[in-house]
Every structure is written in C-alpha cells, then in structure tokens.
Write a structure and sequence with these properties.
The protein is of the alpha+beta class and 70 residues long. 17% of the residues lie in helices and 31% in strands. It is built from one helix and three strands, in the order βββα. It has a three-stranded antiparallel beta sheet, with helices on one face. The radius of gyration is 13 Å and the shape is elongated. It starts with 8 loop residues before the first strand and ends in a 17-residue tail after the last helix.
Length: 70
Amino acid sequence: PPVQPWQKLGVDLLKHKLMWYLLVIDYYSRYLELKTLPRQDSQTIAKNGSSLFLPLTEFHRCSLQTTNHY
C-alpha cells in the first residue's frame, strides 16, 4: 500500500455521452482528477496526462490499445 499521496495511481479512460475522459485516482488519499479529452488518441492522452504527472514522475508516451464492449 502507498505511504504518501501520488505514489500509486489508478488511471482509466471512460466515455460518457460521446465525450472521452481521463480519470486519475490517488490510492492514498482517494483524490481524483477528471480531464475531458477532445480525442481518444495516444498524443492527446499523453498531453493531458503529463500535466498531472510531470511534477511527480516521468511520463512515458505509449500507444494505448482500446476495446469496445457492446
């Protein structure tokens, strides 16, 4: 278990009413950040995620594989 804030994070993408969001939750404090994403591509996710993570750690850009569940 984490012993300080922002040590362990949960990160997920979600879609609600045709809008995509980046959700980040701190396991220690249960604090959450929710950012609206104009697009669901790796560059947009990296850009929006880096504004949360850069003060804390190095953010690696990577391609995300998504699946649609119907």
